[in-house]
Amino acid sequence: MIKIIHSYWAYLVLFFLLIAVYRAISCTILKKEYNPKMFRVALITLIVSHIQILIAFLLYFTSNRFLLWFDLGLVEIIKTPIHRMYLVEHPIINIIAVIFITVGYSKHKKNRLSAQKYKTLALYYSVALVLILSRIPWSVWPN
Q1: pLDDT score at 143
Q2: Across all residues in the chain, what is the average pLDDT?
């Protein structure tokens, strides 16, 4: 059940992250004033990504795959692409992505100028989007 929630919640994360990146880039290009709607989009993106990480931690530490750390050890996990993907690459890269979202959100709030707010969100949220897209296990997602 947790795996299903984790898989489908990822759609929410991607949806809001795509909207936030698109709006931040387009508002930067169009030189629009920062508005409450963008603030809400950025905040919702932050919230859904943090919820996703909490779900992911729950899934990671309760899944049978986690036991492979004890059965196989680090060397074997790193040697096996599928284990490396699920136990090392996917979690670490996505944690880094959520850190980018968190830092970007925090930094954008400190900026006073609209252009700086949008540029900050565009940069940090875009990096997070690329990182997340790079580590989605496409062959099995959303199952």
Answers
A1: 60
A2: 93
Pick from 67, 83, 64: nearest CA to 75: 83
Residue 106 forms part of a structural domain: yes
Q: Is the dihedral of CA 76, 82, 87, 88 positive or negative?
A: positive
Give residue 72's domain range.
Answer: 2-134
Gap between the Cα atoms of 95 and 67, Å rounded: 20
Triad 122, 136, 85: Cα angle to 5°:
125
Rounded Cα distance, 125 and 18, in Å: 9
Total tally of structural domains belonging to the chain = 1
Q: Which amino acid is residue 139, in one-letter code?
A: S
Q: Quick one: pLDDT at residue 117? A: 95
142 part of a folded domain: no
This prediction has a pTM of: 0.90
